[in-house]
Amino acid sequence: MSGAWLYLCSQYFFSYWLLSPLETHSKHIDIYQESSFDNSAIFVFACYFYDADNMPDVDQWNDCSLRRLTHASLMYKASKQSIILTGGDFNEYSDASYSLAARDFLVRMGVDENDILVVDAGTNSSEEVQALKNQQASFSHYHVITSATHAYRVDTLFARYNFSSYCVHPVDHYNVNEFNFDPSLPSIANLERTRAAFYEYAAIINMYFQD
């Protein structure tokens, strides 16, 4: 039985089926054609920073960090507005602040440091949204950048903290290719896709238990 379950989890169609409700919750928004809002800001959820000075800059970030921060940089260049970064010290191997490291990374990518607001707080999604709510600057609309699998949780948290005007910009999609039902040899990549889906469903359940 365990072997059959492992085989199922290693299949593309099964991982696709699990990921699809998560990744289709928020639709892609073309940053070059989006509606404009007065007094809006870009809010970027934290992901992970390795703080390894002996490695190239890009190797110090995992994929979701790179994609979120790169998308923020592109949005900034398409429509200049403030960028808000949250995320404190949640790296067990380092005392580095995620938001401060992310600010420095964005500056190296061409973002004006004066347009970056750092909120050095938050070790999980709920704490980050609370930190955003508590920060002093007042914006009328937020462009929220996060991973596609994270979008449902983000919507729930933003409603919980009474944000009235925001839109989610999902990045870091797993389901990029079209669906197919063809069984195949077991795949480590598909196991990782399945793991990511189960992780997010568990996080959603945990979020409701924290109410």
UniProtKB/TrEMBL annotation:
Q: Which protein, by its recorded name, is this? A: YdcF family protein
- PANTHER family, A to Z: ENVELOPE BIOGENESIS FACTOR ELYC, INNER MEMBRANE PROTEIN, PROBABLE PERMEASE
Q: Which branch of life, at top level? A: Bacteria
Q: Which Pfam families match?
A: DUF218 (PF02698)
Spell out the InterPro entries in the cross-references.
Cell_Envelope_Assoc, DUF218
Residue ranges of domain DUF218 in the record: 64-202
